[in-house]
Design goal:
The complex is a heterodimer of chains A (about 775) and B (about 190). With about 775 residues, chain A is α/β, with parallel strands linked by helices. Chain A is built from 21 helices and 20 strands. With about 190 residues, chain B is α+β, with helices and mostly antiparallel strands. The chains are: A alpha/beta (about 775), B alpha+beta (about 190). The interface between A and B is large, with 71 and 57 residues.
C-alpha cells in the first residue's frame, strides 16, 4: 500500500471488516473535510478495482497542519459514511483549487458527468495531487509505480514523525539540534584558534586587573596604607605605583583585546560571507526563483555579522563573565557574608526587571523598524512614480499619505526614546538600592563592631557589588543573542547543504566537437507538482536550422529554453544536443555552446566593455569591436563620451531598452555559440528599433542552430520550421506555408489576427 | 462535461487540456450582466451550473472586489476561465437562486476565522502559529511573517500560510488582550 498520509490501524481494521483486505489497497490518503465542507476525517482508498471513500470521526494527534475535530474524545474509529466506485468507470481525476480549500473530482467514462469525490483544506493539497496522479494510472489499468520523490516519509521529520511545517524547507522546529549546529560551526572557528586564545587571555588579564584595581584603591589603600600597622603602613608611593601599574596593564590588555578582535572580526566575517556566497552561487536557478533576492542579500550580510558577533564577541565574554560573577561572589562573601547576603537580595529583582525591559525594548525597536521601513518604501515608491503622481496631480494626496506614515514613525520613535530615557535609569535604581543597603548595614556593622568591618572594606565591597551587575545584564541579553545566532547558523548550513537540482554527472561527456542539432523527445516538466508546464514535447532541429516557437503567454515557451540551458532538468524524456543527452554533458561545455538572448537583458555594473566581454574575458579589442558592430551597437557606443569605457548599470549611465538589447546581443556574438536561443528578444521594441535589432540578429544566427521564441509572428519569417505550443504541448508543427494552409489552425488564426491588427495600425507586412 | 481547474488556475491532475478561445477585443470589452431574465443557476451533481444563451454549463464564481463586496460584482466563469458574465448583486435573484450563489461563494471563499491566538513562535525566518477557530484548534506556519499578512481593511487581516491556506481575523481590535499582544508586532 502506498500511504500518501499515515492511515491509523483502526481505520484499516474497520475497512477489513467490510471485506477490503489491507493487502489489496494500492493507494491511501486522508483529507480533513467532508464534502459538505465541515471538519471531519475522510480516508480515500484505491484498490485495483475500487475507489473507496471512508468517512468518520477519529481522535488524532494534533499534527502541524491538520484540523483536529473539535471534541477529540472518541478513542476509536466512528464510521459515518462508506462509498465505493468502480475505478475503471472513472477517469480524469483532478484537483480543483478553491481559495483555502480544494476539491478532488473525476468524471464518469460514460457520459462525461463530473463526480465530486472529496473536499479538503490546502493542508492536504499536496496529498491530493499525488492521489489524483496515481488514481489516473489505476483507472487506466496501469499498475502505479511509485516515484521515490513522492514518498511521504520525506514529508516527516525522521526523528519525531511530525510533518514538516514547510515541505520546501525540511526543518523540524522540535528536533533541531542546537548542539550539532554549534559543533559543526566550531570546526570552522578552529582556523582562528590562535586569535581566539589571545582574545581570551587578554580578557582574563583585563578581568583580573579590573578586580584588583578597586581593592588597591579602596580597601588596601585605607586599611593597610593609611590606617594600617602592617608592612605597607605609610608606603604611599608603593601603593601609587601599584595603582598606576594595574591601570597600565589594564590598558595594554584592552589594546591587545581590541587589536585581536578587529583582526579576527574582519577575517571571520570575510570568510563567512565568502562561504555563504559561494554556497548560494552553486545552487540552481530554482533556489533563486523560490526566494526573494532582497532577502538573500540581507541574509549574506546580516547572518555573517550575527554569527561573528556571537562567536567572537558574546561567547568569550560569556566565559569571562561567568568567571567574573563567581570570583566576585566569592570575594563579596569573604569580605562579609552577612552583608553580601543582604545586599544581593536585589539581584533576582534586577534580573527579572532587566528581562522584562529587554523584551519591551526589542518590541519597541521592532515597531520603529517596521514603521521606518514602511516610510522608506513609501518614499521610494512615490519618487520613482513621480511622473504618474504629477500626471494625475496627486501631490496633495501623497503629501497627506506621507504625513500619516511620518506621524507613525514619529510616535514609535518617541515611545522608544521615552522608554530608554525613563525605564533604564529607573532600573538602575535597583542597583542603587543594593548600594544603600550596603552603606546602611555596613555602617551599622562598623559602629556596632559587628564582624570586623572597616571603611576600606565597605568601599571595596560596594565597588565589587557594582561590578557584579554588568555581567548579569549580559546574561539577560545572552539568551536572545544565542537564539539569533542559531537562526543564522541554521540558515547558513541550510544553504551549504542544499543540493543543486541540476548537477553535473560524474565523468560527464566532453566531446571534442559538439554538433549543433537539438532534439526534444517526450519532455515533460512542471515547476509545481501536478501542474505540467511542458507535457510530452517532441521536436528536433538539425544543425544550422532555425526553429520558431509560437504560443500564447504562459504556454511554456520560455520553459523550453530554460530546459535546454539546464536551468532546470526535465522530469521525463530527454533533451539531446549534437546527439548527446544534456544531462550527460559537462556543464561548462553545455554553457559554452548554448547562448540565450532574452527580453530581459541584464547588464552588470561596469563598463560596456566588461559587459560585452562577460562571456569571454580574454577576447581581444578587435573582437569586441567586431561583435559590437555586428550587433549594431558600435555606432551608439561611439557617441557616448567614454565610448567602450562608459560605465553602465545601476546608478550609472542609463541605456535605452534597444541599446541594452544590442549590448547583450554583442555579448552573445562574442561567445560564438553553436546554439542560440532568442527568447522574445525584440518583443519590447518599437518597429524601427526592432528592425535594426533584427538585422543584427540575422548576422548573429548565420550558420548557427537557432531557436526563436516569439510573440510577434513577423519576426519568425526566416524560420525553417515552426512549432506551436499550447498548454505545454506541441499543437502544430510545420513551415509557415504549411501552417497557413491548415483550416482552423491556431497558427493561422494568430497570423490573421496579427496581420489585421497591423493593417488597422497602418502598417502592412 | 470535462474536468476543470479551479478559478484562476489552469486544469490540473493530467486532465485533457482545452483550447483557449480566441476572442477579439470587441468581444472582450463588452460586459454581460447576468440577471434573472437572461440566466438561471442550478445545482447538479454537487456542482453549480448556469443556463444561459441556450446552453447549460458548469460555472465558477469569483468575487471581483473580495475585500469589499462579498455578494456583489461576481464574475461567472466557464470551465476555460472565460467570463460568461457578471452578477451585479446576488440580491437580484430570487431566494432559491440567491441561496445557490451564496452557498457556492461561501464554499469557494471558505477561510477559517481566527478567534483566539494561542501561541506564536518566530523561528528561523518562519513563524509557527497555534490558533483557535470555530472548527477547532489548528496550527500553521507562515514564511516571512510580515509579507504573509495581507491588510484587507483597517483592522481586517488575512494570513497566507506556507500551504496556501488563508486564515482571517475580521477585526483585530476585537481580539482578546492576550491574543492581540501576540499579533501586535505584525500589524
Amino acid at each position: 500500500m502506498f500511504e500518501i498520509d499515515r492511515i491509523p490501524c483502526a481505520v484499516t481494521e474497520a475497512l477489513g471488516d467490510k471485506g477490503i483486505a489491507t493487502d489489496d489497497i494500492v493507494l491511501a490518503a486522508h483529507v480533513d473535510r467532508t464534502r459538505e465542507h465541515t471538519v471531519g476525517d475522510v480516508y480515500l482508498f484505491a484498490t485495483k478495482e475500487e475507489l473507496i471513500l471512508f468517512s468518520g470521526v477519529m481522535a488524532v494527534r494534533s499534527e502541524t497542519g491538520h484540523f483536529r475535530a473539535a471534541p477529540a474524545v472518541h478513542k476509536k474509529w466512528m464510521e459515518t459514511g462508506y462509498e465505493s466506485y468502480l475505478i475503471r468507470e472513472l477517469c480524469g481525476f483532478s484537483v480543483e483549487e478553491l481559495l483555502s480549500s480544494g476539491r478532488l473530482t473525476a468524471r464518469r467514462r460514460e457520459g462525461e458527468c463530473p463526480v465530486y469525490l472529496a473536499c479538503f483544506t490546502n493542508f492536504c493539497k499536496e496529498s491530493m495531487f499525488l492521489f489524483a496522479k496515481y488514481a489516473n494510472k489505476l483507472s487506466e489499468g496501469e499498475s502505479p509505480e511509485i516515484d521515490p520523490k513522492d514518498d511521504p516519509v520525506s514529508k516527516q521529520c525522521p526523528k519525531c514523525g511530525l510533518r514538516y511545517p514547510d515541505l520546501n524547507r525540511r526543518v523540524c522546529p522540535h528536533c533541531m539540534e542546537k548542539g550539532k549546529l554549534f559543533k559543526r560551526f566550531s570546526v570552522f572557528l578552529l582556523r582562528y584558534k590562535g586569535y581566539l586564545m589571545m582574545s581570551v587571555l587578554s580578557l582574563v588579564l583585563l578581568t583580573a586587573m579590573s578586580i584588583l584595581a578597586p581593592y588597591l584603591s579602596s580597601g588596601f589603600f585605607y586599611d593597610e596604607v593609611i590606617y594600617g600597622t602592617g608592612i605597607f603602613a605609610g608606603e604611599l608611593l608603593l601603593v601609587l605605583g601599584l595603582i598606576i601599574s594595574t591601570a597600565i596593564l589594564k590598558m595594554f590588555a584592552t589594546m591587545i583585546n581590541n587589536l585581536v578582535t578587529s583582526t579576527i572580526a574582519a577575517k571571520v566575517v570575510f570568510d563567512l560571507k565568502k562561504t555563504i556566497f559561494s554556497a548560494i552561487e552553486r545552487l540552481s536557478l530554482n533556489f533563486f526563483t523560490g526566494r526573494q533576492t532582497g532577502g538573500l542579500m540581507t541574509q549574506i550580510n546580516e547572518d555573517a555579522n550575527t554569527i561573528y558577533g556571537f562567536f567572537c564577541d558574546s561567547l568569550p565574554y560569556l566565559l569571562i563573565n561567568i568567571v567574573q560573577v563567581i570570583v566576585l561572589a566569592i570575594l563579596l562573601f569573604t569580605i562579609q557574608p552577612m552583608l553580601a547576603f543582604l545586599s544581593l537580595v536585589t539581584v533576582p529583582a534586577f534580573v527579572i526587571v532587566m528581562r522584562w525591559m529587554f523584551r519591551r525594548e526589542r518590541m519597541l525597536h521592532a515597531k520603529r523598524y517596521s514603521n521606518s521601513r514602511q516610510m522608506n518604501s513609501f518614499l521610494a515608491d512615490v519618487f520613482s512614480g513621480m511622473r504618474v503622481v504629477k500626471a494625475f496631480s496627486k501631490e496633495e494626496e501623497e503629501i497627506r499619505r506621507f504625513t500619516g506614515k511620518n506621524g507613525n514613525l514619529a510616535v514609535s520613535e518617541r515611545r522608544l526614546s521615552l522608554f530608554t530615557n525613563y525605564a533604564w535609569p529607573m532600573a538602575h535604581q535597583i542597583l542603587y538600592l543594593g548600594n544603600i543597603i550596603a552603606w546602611g548595614v555596613g555602617g551599622w556593622m562598623i559602629i556596632s563592631g559587628f564582624g570586623d568591618m572597616s571603611y576600606g572594606k565597605i568601599l571595596t565591597f560596594i565597588a565589587y557589588m557594582n561590578m557584579i551587575f554588568s555581567p548579569l545584564e549580559f546574561f539577560v541579553h545572552f539568551l536572545d543573542r544565542l537564539a539569533d545566532c542559531t537562526n543564522s547558523l541554521q540558515r547558513l548550513f541550510e544553504i551549504m547543504d542544499a543540493q543543486p537540482d541540476v548537477s553535473e554527472k560524474e565523468n560527464p561527456e566532453r566531446p571534442a566537437v559538439l554538433g549543433g542539432s537539438v532534439e526534444f523527445s517526450h519532455v515533460t516538466f512542471s515547476y509545481q507538482k501536478g501542474k505540467k508546464i511542458i507535457d510530452d514535447v517532441n521536436f528536433d532541429v538539425p544543425d544550422g536550422h532555425i526553429l520558431g516557437i509560437v504560443g500564447h503567454t504562459g504556454a511554456g515557451k520560455s520553459t523550453l529554453a530554460n530546459l535546454l540551458m539546464r536551468m532546470y532538468d526535465a522530469e521525463e524524456g530527454e533533451i539531446r544536443i549534437g546527439g548527446y543527452p544534456v544531462k550527460e554533458l559537462e556543464l561548462a561545455m553545455l554553457y559554452r555552446n548554448v547562448a540565450i538572448v532574452s527580453q530581459e537583458t541584464y547588464l552588470f555594473i561596469g563598463t560596456i566593455l566588461d559587459n560585452i566581454r562577460y562571456a569571454r574575458p580574454d577576447a581581444s579589442f578587435e573582437e569586441v569591436v567586431q561583435a559590437a558592430k555586428c550587433a549594431g551597437a558600435h555606432d551608439f557606443i561611439m557617441k557616448l563620451p567614454d565610448a567602450y569605457h562608459t560605465r553602465i548599470g545601476f546608478g550609472y549611465k542609463d541605456l535605452s531598452g534597444g541599446e541594452r538589447q544590442r549590448v547583450s546581443i554583442a555579448r552573445a556574438i562574442l561567445k560564438n555559440p553553436k546554439i542560440l536561443i532568442l527568447d522574445e528578444a525584440t518583443a519590447a521594441m518599437d518597429t524601427g528599433t526592432e528592425r535594426r535589432i533584427q538585422e543584427a540578429l540575422t548576422e548573429l544566427i548565420k550558420g548557427k542552430t537557432t531557436i526563436m521564441i516569439a510573440h510577434r509572428l513577423s519576426t519568425l519569417r526566416d524560420a525553417d520550421e515552426l512549432v506551436v505550443i499550447e498548454h505545454g504541448k506541441v499543437a502544430e508543427r510545420g513551415t509557415h506555408a504549411e501552417l497557413l494552409e491548415r483550416e482552423d489552425g491556431i497558427y493561422k488564426k494568430l497570423y490573421t489576427l496579427q496581420a489585421e491588427a497591423l493593417k488597422s495600425a497602418g502598417i502592412s507586412e | 462535461m470535462r474536468p476543470m481547474g479551479g478559478p484562476g488556475r489552469g486544469p490540473h491532475g493530467g486532465g485533457p487540456h482545452h483550447e483557449e478561445k480566441h476572442r477579439s477585443l470587441a468581444e472582450i470589452s463588452v460586459t454581460v450582466w447576468l440577471t434573472p431574465e437572461n440566466a438561471r443557476f442550478l445545482y447538479q451533481n454537487n456542482f453549480l451550473y448556469i443556463e444561459y444563451d441556450g446552453k447549460t454549463q458548469r460555472v465558477f464564481l469569483c468575487r471581483q472586489f473580495p475585500f469589499e463586496l462579498e455578494w456583489e460584482f461576481i464574475s461567472v466563469m466557464d470551465a476555460e476561465q472565460q467570463e460568461i458574465g457578471i452578477v451585479k448583486s446576488v440580491e437580484l435573484f430570487d431566494e432559491e437562486q440567491k441561496k445557490l450563489l451564496v452557498e457556492e461563494l461561501r464554499r469557494r471563499y471558505y477561510s477559517p476565522v481566527i478567534d483566539k491566538i494561542i501561541s506564536v513562535k518566530e523561528r528561523y525566518g518562519f513563524s509557527y502559529w497555534k490558533v483557535h477557530t470555530p472548527d477547532g484548534e489548528v496550527s500553521f506556519t507562515l514564511h516571512d511573517t510580515y509579507r504573509s499578512i495581507i491588510h484587507a481593511g483597517e483592522t481586517r487581516i488575512i494570513m497566507l500560510d506556507v500551504n496556501g491556506n488563508r486564515f482571517e481575523i475580521p477585526d483585530t481590535s476585537a481580539l482578546d488582550h492576550k491574543s492581540y499582544k501576540k499579533i501586535e508586532l505584525y500589524l
